[in-house]
Amino acid sequence: MKRRIARILKGVARRLTPNKMLKPHKVHRNTVDRGYEFSNTWFEGNRPQWDTFMEKFQPRMLLEIGSYEGASACYLIDTLAHDADIELHCIDTWEGSVEHTGQYPKPSLVEARFIKNTALAIAAAAKSVNLVVHKGKSDTHLPKLLGENMQERFDLIYIDGSHQAPDVLFDAVVAFKLLKPGGLMIFDDYLWHDPSLGSFDTLRNPKIAVDAFTNVYGREVKILNAQLRQMYLIKHAQ
Ligand SMILES: C[S@@+](CC[C@H](N)C(=O)[O-])C[C@H]1O[C@@H](n2cnc3c(N)ncnc32)[C@H](O)[C@@H]1O
Fold first, then answer.
1. How many whole angstroms separate alpha carbon 209 and alpha carbon 213?
2. What CATH number does domain 43-235 carry, 3.40.350.10, 1.20.1740.10, 3.40.50.2300, 3.40.50.150?
3. Which residue is closest in CA terms to ligand 1's atom 16?
4. Which of 160, 163, 164 to mutate to test ligand 1, by most ligand atoms within 8 A of the CB atom?
5. What does residue 73 show for φ and ψ, rounded to 5 degrees?
6. Relative to the CA of 94, which ligand 1 atom is closest?
7. In whole angstroms, what is the distance from residue 70 CA to residue 117 CA?
8. Measured in angstroms, how far is the CA atom of residue 137 from the centroid of ligand 1?
9. Hey, which of 162, 169, 188, 190 would you mutate to test ligand 1's pocket, going by the most ligand atoms within 8 Å of its Cβ?
10. Ligand 1: residues whose CB is within 6 Å?
11. Which distant-in-sequence residues (6+ apart) come within 8 Å of 48 by Cβ?
12. Counting atoms of ligand 1 from 1, which one is nearest the CA of 68?
């Protein structure tokens, strides 16, 4: 009996070890191989453009809306904490987006990966990394940051949370107040649409929101010349 219980407990423990829990996802190794575990390659196509802009702008105060397993966060740490201290704020519910309905892995697994991956990046960084995690929705945390006197404090803001147009517009308008004059704002998936929807629904994609934002804030931003898979703009210095 004792042996049977021990066997059952061993089986449970084996199933609960992080690697086993994460096994159903295909593991992708990042180019900088620190042992990262990513289940997708969403970020990979951005690297060449980001490399150019990171070198040009050298941002140090960073805000990311939508972190998932930390691919973009690890890129920022790997790329920028080489020769200067950085502060990286990450906002995510770790519950997935509307378009992930039915396919989002267990939130705790994705969040565990984010924690593990960013810890690996921070451990390897030459300079100090202050990682500030804001768990919850962006419509709660962005206003909170504004209320904490973080206006115009960020050099780089990456908007990659909800891809629903009303959410993207909200994130853009509020995050813009947090961006320094001269700072860089990046919208992911400018031309993306949800393939799971039978028909094209403009309000369930970022584009209409990014267009509305860049039109209304047209006098305050300059759109950078880049491939349109993402939209890059800088806030005019006053
Ligand atoms: C496309 S993933 C982010 C990918 C990540 N930047 C990367 O490079 O791997 C989108 C993330 O946004 C989060 N998210 C969706 N809607 C959100 C919201 N309203 N507020 C905060 N996070 C949200 C999801 O939980 C998900 O982890």
1. 6
2. 3.40.50.150
3. 162
4. 160
5. -60, -45
6. 25
7. 6
8. 9
9. 162
10. 42-43, 66-69, 71-72, 91-97, 137-138, 160-162, 167
11. none
12. 27
Interacting residues of 99 by C-beta distance below 8 A, sequence separation 6+: 163, 194, 196, 204
Written as six digits, the tokens of 109 are 């697994």
DSSP 44: G
Mind listing the pLDDT tens digit of every residue in the chain (238 residues)? 555 554 544 443 344 333 333 333 443 444 567 999 999 999 999 999 999 999 999 999 999 999 999 999 999 999 999 989 999 999 999 998 887 666 677 888 999 999 999 999 999 999 999 999 999 999 999 999 999 999 999 999 999 999 999 999 999 999 999 999 999 999 999 999 888 887 888 999 999 999 999 999 999 999 999 989 999 999 998 7
How are strands ordered across the β-sheet holding 221-223?
129-135, 86-92, 61-65, 154-159, 179-187, 231-235, 221-223
* Residue whose pair of structure tokens reads 């740490």 in the numeric block: 77
